[in-house]
Amino acid sequence: DTSRILCPVLGQRIMSAAEAAELIPAGANVGMSGFTGAGYPKAVPGALAERIRHLNAQPNAKPFRINVWTGASTAPELDGVLAEVDGIEMRLPFQSDPICRSRINNGTMDYVDYHLSEVSQYAWSGFLGKMDIALIEVAGIREDGSLIPSSSIGNNKTWIEQADKIILEVNSKQNAKLEGMHDIYYGTALPPNRKPIMLTDPADRIGEQYLACPPEKVIAVVETAAADRNSPFKPSDDVSKRIAEHILDFFNKEIELGRLPKELLPIQSGVGNIPNAVLEGLDSGPYKDLTAFTEVIQDGMLKMLKSGTLKVASATAFSLSPDGIKEFDDNIDFYRDKIILRQQDISNHPELARRLGVIAMNGLIECDLYGNVNSTHIMGTRMMNGIGGSGDFARNGYLSIFVSPSTAKDGAISAIVPMVSHVDHTEHDVKIIVTEQGLADLRGLSPRQRAHEIINNCAHPDFRPALIDYYERALHSGRGMHTPHLLEEALSWHQRYEETGQM
Ligand code: 0RQ
Q: Which residues on neighbouring strands pair with residue 267, listed in sequence order?
C-alpha cells in the first residue's frame, strides 16, 4: 500500500529496511523517533542490528557501533535489538530497556541522561556533535513532502532539521486519522533571539499540523505495518490505591483552602501503576473539565476524556496498553480534538510548565529525610531508566508531587533513607512526598521540620524507629543543625543492603 506516500520524489526512494540500514555508517550519530514505546522506527533498527551482528562476526572486525539519540524510551525492536548486538556506543536521553540497562550498568554502553525538554536545544547548540542521520517513523508523506507525524513527536522536528540525511519509515498500522492531532511549533530559536512562547492554555494550538522535511535530505523511505509496543499496565494494587487516596484528599483540602481551583491545574502524570491509579481516582471523584499538560497519554487519560473528567490533554506521545489502543482506534473521532501532540521541547517546556502552573506527579526510587529525591539510581551506582521529564515538571510546576511505595523488594529496602545515594530532584524542588503510609507536605518547612513530616507520614513502620534514631543522633552530634547528618553513617543503609540484601 503506497497510498501513504503521496510525494512523487520520495516515492522513488522506497527501499527495503536492509537496503536502508546499509546507508548508516559506523560511528554515526543517529537521531531516532520514539517516545515511551510510541512512534519508534520498527524495521530499520532490526535490519541494522542484523548487519552489525554479521559485520562484527568477521575475523578482526573493528566493532561497528552507532550513537542513538531518541525522544525517550523505545521498544525491544529498537533499543533491545541494537543493545543485544552491542551496536550502541552512546545512548541519550532516556531508556527503559532491560538489555540497554544491563549494558549501561556493566560499562559496555555510555549513557547520557538529560532533561527531556533540553535535548533539542543541546543538539541545536552543537553541544552533542553533528547529527548524521535522522531515522523517523511517520504516519504518511504528503504530496508536498511534508510529513504526517505518528503516535509520538518527541525530538523529531529537531532531528529532521539537524540531520544531514533522513530515513523515513512510513507505518501504515498507525491510524490515518492521527492527521491533524499534532501541533509542531516552528518559533523556537537559540538565545539571544528567543521570543515568548504564546501558549496560555493546554488546548492552545500554536504551530503546524505537519513536520516540514526537505525532500533532498531523504535518502530512503521504508514501508512498515507494525503496531507500537503497547505494553499492558499492571492493574492498580492496594498500595497504589492508597497513594491515590492520599493525593485526592490533598487536592480536596487545597480546593477548600482556596489554593487550587475546583478544576485543579493542568496535570502532568508519569507512566506506571501509581500514576494510573491516581488518574482512576480522579475519574471516580467529583472532578469535571480538568486539563492535562503532560508528556504521555496513558489509558487513564483516555478514560478521563471519555467521562468528561478531562476536557483536553496536551502531550508528546501516547503510551497505551493493547486495550487502550483499541479504545483509541475505535473512537478516534471522539478523541481527535481533545488530544494535542507537541514536540517534547514544547510539551515539557519550563516556561510553559511555570506559566500554566502544572501539578507534577512522578515516581521516586528513594527520598531522604530532607526531601531530596533520587529517581534514577539503584544504590547510588546502577541506572534504572533516567530522569525523563520529571525534572522539567518538578522544578517548574506549581506543585511537585513524588510518589512511591514506602518499601521496595518485599520490604528489604526503605524508600525513605537518611541520605539519598543520588540526587535528581533537590529539596528546593520537591513539594510533596506520598507513600501508601501517607502524605508529607513540605511547603514552607525547614529541613528539620521536613524530617519530622517525612518520617511520621511516609516512612514504613518497620524503618521508622531507625530513621528517628539516626535523626536524633544527628541532632545531638554537635555538627551543623540546618541539615543534621552523621556523615559516617549517611549511606550505611545502602552499604548494608549491598552486603546483606537488607537495609
Ligand atoms: O523493580 O519491578 O524489578 O521489582 O524499581 O518501581 O515501584 O514499580 O514504580 O514503575 O513507577 O518506577 C522512579 C523507576 C519508579 C520511575 C521509577 C524498583 C522496584 C521495581 C520500579 P522490579 P515501581 P515505577 C514521566 C516522568 C523517572 C522518569 C520519570 C522512573 C522498579 O517512575 O523511571 O519520572 N522515573 N519520568 O522494585 C531498589 C529502591 C527502589 C527499587 C523502586 N529504593 N531500591 N529498587 N525500585 N525503588 C514519564 C517519562 O519520562 C517518560
A: 292, 359
Spatial separation of the C-alpha atoms in residues 280 and 410, rounded to whole Å: 25
**Three-class secondary structure assignment of 130-194:** CCCEEEEEEEEECCCCCEEECCECCCHHHHHHHCCEEEEEEECCCCHHHCCCEEECCCCCCCCCC
| Residue nearest (by alpha carbon) to ligand 1 atom 12 | 363
CB contact at 8 A, 306 and 333: no
What is the grid cell recorded at 60?
578482526
CA distance 204 to 479: 52
SS3 for 138?
strand
Q: What is the DSSP letter of 37?
A: T
Contact 419, 490 (CB under 8 A): yes
User: What ipTM was estimated for this complex?
Assistant: 0.97
Q: Report d(CA 503, CA 489) in Å as an integer.
A: 13
**Closest CA relative to residue 212, chosen from 3, 4, 7, 1:** 7
* Active-site annotation holds for 263: no
What's the 373 CA to ligand 1 centre distance in angstroms? 12
Residue 2 has pLDDT above 70, yes or no: no
Model confidence at 276, in pLDDT bands (50, 70, 90)? Answer: confident
Per-residue pLDDT reduced to its tens digit, 360-416: 999 999 999 999 999 999 999 999 999 999 999 999 999 999 999 999 999 999 999
The catalytically annotated residue of 118, 295, 366, 427 is 295
pTM over 0.90: yes
Rounded to the nearest 5°, which phi and psi values hold at 44? -65, -40
